[in-house]
Amino acid sequence: MPEAANRWARVRIFSHIGLDLGACLRNNSHMSAGLDDVHLTRRERQIMEVVYARGEATAREILEKIPDPPGYSSVRKLLGILVEKGHLKQRSEGKRLVYSTRKPHGRAARSAMQRLLDVFFAGSVEEAVSGLISLKRDDLTSDQLTRLASVIEDAQKNNEHNATE
Description:
Layout: H1 3-16, H2 21-27, H3 42-54, E1 56-57, H4 59-65, H5 72-84, E2 88-93, E3 96-101, H6 105-121, H7 125-136, H8 142-164
């Protein structure tokens, strides 16, 4: 799966299971990971999700992807705010402005996963993994389950190796 499609699939999974990470973040501003995301409105978070999923996007492309979209000028205004807040950067491409994130996708994903783990699973990796597998049990292929088992096995070996040092 291409990277942009893969990122969009992850965003859809979080939306599908009904997690409103932004509401959670507003109520848990003491968390150390990703404090810069605490002050995003619902619309700003939706825009950021689209830009992260696509890698970069124009106002029109964002408008097409967000649910119950506001008007075009509202999206442009929100993009300007996100640039001012330092979340997005813009570049000109002909007459269009193309927006991309300032924070690399991998760093943002790790930050979001840490917040998800802290807020919804009290820091328990076991609970988080079990919950995700239970949620998507019928959708997981044999290959995916084998890869997950391999990741767990590698972590277990690493843990045992570290315990012997």
